[in-house]
Write a structure and sequence with these properties.
heterodimer; A: alpha+beta; four-stranded antiparallel sheet; B: 306 residues; alpha/beta; 9 helices
Amino acid sequence: TETFVGHQVLRVTPQSDEELQKVQELQDLEHLQLDFWLAPRGLGLPVDIRVPFPSLQAVKAHLEASGVSYSIMIEDVQALLDVEQMEMLRSSRRLSLN
Amino acid sequence: TDTFNYEAYHTIDEIYSFMDMLVAENPNLVSKLEIGRSTENRPLYVLKFSTGGTNRPAIWIDTGIHSREWVTQASGVWFAKKIVQDHANNEGVASILETMDIFLEIVTNPDGFVFTHTKNRMWRKTRSKNSGSICVGVDPNRNWDAGFGDAGASGNPCTETYHGPYPNSEPEVKSIVDFVKSHGNIKAFVSIHSYSQLLLYPYGYTETPAPDEQELHELSAKAVAALTSLYGTKYKYGSIITTIYRASGSTVDWTYNQGIKYSFTFELRDTGRYGFLLPAKQIVPTAEETWLALKVIMEHARDHPY
């Protein structure tokens, strides 16, 4: 099973054509293995990118160097998945008891 | 199905068991059709809700074509139970069922769904092999014969929006295509995705407005107002290409071109907190609010025969 330890989901909201272009450039950088949860759509519209841990520094540097601000939407994807898994287990146990 | 936990995510086996239970409990209303098999030979089940009659006008709803969008399959389960409850209590969609059938495909991409449970929670595509590539899967929402392969889809099998080698190459798509064509009387088609809180209508592959754009826009406004009335969840609406981006080969563009006027696609919650990892406690509120919008669309289809 693939784990997502240290993966973050970054939210970028491009405010200018230059910022939009910088975010779009990320889509072409295949080696970073980025997963665009929300792809670039236009100015003022959020772009959500799941960034594997090894690519975090490069992505943040790319954005910061271009003056593109971002927020961290999910700090650690695996932590959320662990919670989700735990809840499913709890639920199926309850189902068996029923 | 009264004791089923609708506030939790479930595996495909649990969902398929739920469907069997629902059919067993309501033999005069619900039946289960197998419309085909997936790439990995899993059955593609559709629940049919019908109070009788042959080849009545029908409404199609599908959830989970993108496998990682778990809130959609979970909402599909809730919708199924809700239809049965409304019928039993003679409220809500009961009046729709007097004249129309409802088809609901809860796990539209079963191979992908199983893969999200067993190997990779973030899997979105089908699980078909691509000759000449080590990358697996096709985006089933770019695999329809509507602007297939144009801008707004990728020809690279390693991308999330890979359109596949040819239209309907994915059995998950082909099965629906065959079903819709052979049925011939589907009047509304709603394909449900997550996330970003949108209600969209054709087109995605062209900037040319759909001939029925004005009616679809007005209907979207009504549906979104109903949705928002419950918990205040804010939705945007419009055509796919003007509201999000160019997307070729998408489901509802094809259904619209087949003459299904009321073709819509939803993007359910959330915006900016959890994405595809929406906590299970939000399943029921999401399904409840979506249901209000669905009801508006279904009632409109019933009241505006064409």
